[in-house]
Amino acid sequence: MLTALDRKHTIAPEGYSRWLIPPAALAVHLCIGQVYATSVYKNSFIKHFAASQTSIGIIFSIAIVMLGLSAAVGGTWVEANGPRKAMFVSACCWASGFLVAALGIGTKQLWLVYLGYGVIGGIGLGIGYISPVSTLIKWFPDRPGLATGLAIMGFGGGALIASPASRQLLSAYDSSYDPNVATSIADGRALVLLFVTLGIAYFLIMMFGVANIRVPAPGWRPTGWDPSAAKAKPLVTAANVSAANAIRTRSFWLLWVVLFCNVTAGIGILEQASPMIQDFFRGSDGVSTVSVTAASGFVGLLSLFNMAGRFVWSSTSDVLGRKPMYLVYLGVGMVMYLLLATVGDAATALFVVLAGVILSFYGGGFATVPAYLRDLFGTYQVGAIHGRLLIAWSAAGVAGPLIINGFLDAQGKPGSLTADAYRPALFTMVGVLAVGFVANLLIRPVPERFHEPAGTVTALEKEAAA
Q1: Alpha-carbon torsion 5, 11, 16, 21, what sign?
Q2: For residue 84, what pLDDT band results from cuts at 50, 70 and 90?
Q3: pTM: predicted TM-score of the whole model, two decimal places
Q4: Which among 109, 121, 112, 186 has a CA at the least distance from the CA of 158?
Q5: Please, what's the b/e burial string for 164-181 (b: 16 or more CB within 10 A of its CB; e: otherwise)?
Q6: Is the distance from CB of 192 to CB of 174 less than 8 angstroms?
Q7: 3-state SS class at 79
Q8: Which has more pLDDT, 382 or 219?
C-alpha cells in the first residue's frame, strides 16, 4: 500500500486539470495553519503549567524553528520523492505531535508539549508547508504568484477555523469554561481532549490532500503559455540553479534577510493577538473595553487579513514584480507600525485596520517568496531552495515572540498591561523592517556561473520519468 506514495504513481495523466491541485494543497495548509491559533488557549496553558508568558511562547517558537529546519533539511528529499509521500509524512508528524502534547498536558510535563507540538509537530509543519507549494509552482509556471498564493492562503487561514473550533471544543469539554468571559480558564482535562480531537481530525483532513495530489509530467506546459514571454521581466531567469549553488549566491542571503525581517515584524503580534487588543484598550481601573469574545474574533479577523494578503498581494506580484511588492510590504509596513505604536489606542477600529494591514503584508510576504525564488533560481529545485530559505522563518519565530514577550514580561503581569507596554517592541519592529527594506533593494539577478549547464535539467527530468 505504501508504494502508492511513490512519485511515479503521482504523475498526472494527459489532460489532467491543474485546478484540481489547489484543493489538495489547501487540505494540508488549512490544517497546519492551526499553529497561528495558539494564542486562544495561551492563558489556559500559563495557568495549567504555572509558567510565564515566555515559557509558553517557546512552544510556538520551537514549532516554527522545526518548521524551518525540517523544510531546509527535507527540501531535497521532498523534490526527489514527490509531494504525496511528503504530505503523508507531514500528516503523521502533525497528528502525532498533538497526541504527544496531550500526554504532556495530562501529566503536567511541559517538556513533552515542547517535544510533541514543538519538535514532532514542527517537522510536520515544515514538510507539509513546502511539498504542495513546490508542486503548485510547477503546475502554474505562467502565474507563480497566484499559485503560491492559493496554497499558502490556506496556511494563513488555518486559525480562522481553529480559533472558534478550539473555543467551542474547550467549552464542550469543560462545563466551567465560558469563552465569553475574560477570566475563564480551561482545565487540564479539556486541554487534553482538545489536542486529541484536533490531532485525529487534522490527520483525516490531510489524507484527502495526500490522495488527490499530482505532479505534472516531465516537459508539461500550460496550453498557450510561451516561456520566452517571462524573460523580459526584471529578475526573472529562464535558467535553473541547484539548491547547492543557490545558497552560495548573494541574492539568496539577501532574500533570507528580507524574509526574516518581514516575518519577525508580523509574528510577534500574531502570537500575542488576543491579549494584545485587550491590553491596548485597558482603562485605569484595569478593565479592558474589549471582551474576550471580541478579542477571539479579532484573532479570526487577523486570519482573514493574513489569508487575503497571501492571495491578493501574491497575485498582484505577478503584475508588479516580486521586488517592488516587497518594497511595499516593508516600506508601508514601517508606517503601519509607527501608527500602531503612536495612535493605535485612539480607537478600536483604527487598531484593527492597522494590525490587519500589517498581517496582510506578513501573509503576502510568505506567499510571494516562493515565486521570488522561482524568478531568481528557476523551477529545477525551487522546493529545496524554498526549504533552505525557511530557516529565516525559524529564526524569526524565535526573535519575534522573544522581542514582544521580553518587553511584556518586564512591564508587568498578563491582564494588567496597557498600550504603553507594547510601544518599545513596536518601535523595535520598525527598525527590523528598515533592515529588510535595504536588503531587498540590494537583490540582483543571479550570475550565470551559478546556472546549471544547458540540457542538464531536461536530461534529469527524462531520467526521472524513465
Answers
A1: positive
A2: very high
A3: 0.81
A4: 121
A5: bbbbebbbebbeebbbee
A6: no
A7: helix
A8: 382
